[in-house]
Specification:
The protein is α/β, with parallel strands linked by helices. 31% of the residues lie in helices and 28% in strands. Strand 1, helix 1 and strand 2 form a beta-alpha-beta unit. The chain is globular and about 50 Å long.
Length: 130
């Protein structure tokens, strides 16, 4: 099992209408500004949302992996629920990983179905924090 942490900025929290507590700080001074960790058991992503134009209902979520700074762009016409956003993110992440594996030669096209099954079977604990 591995954990996926989606750290949302204030704009994203408001856009998704979330009520989640901030990450506590050991010294009590840097509440909500703790560093994100990516390692063999955890992937951490920073999530930001920007409107596509003034007074538009269309938005783009910018999701950046905390260590590599690899970035995904996810367009939305309206704010999704948090569960829908997490599912959209996992689907996009899986697709991008498969495409990178194909382009690098690490995966042959006939292996895609097997990789997808393995990804889907792998237990993922996904949660969002501010």
């Amino acid at each position: 099992m591995y954990t996926i942490v989606l750290s949302a900025n204030n704009a994203m929290i408001k856009w998704l209408k979330l009520d989640v507590p901030r990450i506590p700080s050991p010294d009590g001074k840097r509440i909500g500004t703790q560093p994100l960790v990516t390692n063999s058991r955890q992937l951490s992503w920073q999530c930001n949302v920007v409107p596509n134009s003034y007074r538009s209902s269309e938005y783009t979520v910018i999701v950046t992996e905390a260590y590599s700074r690899y970035t995904l762009f996810m367009p939305y016409r309206f704010a999704p629920g948090v569960e829908e956003f997490e599912a959209d993110f996992l689907e996009r992440f899986e697709f991008v990983i498969q495409q990178l594996m194909l382009e690098s030669g690490a995966l042959e096209p006939h292996q895609l179905a097997s990789v997808k099954q393995q990804f889907d079977r792998q237990k993922k604990d996904t949660y969002m924090v501010p």
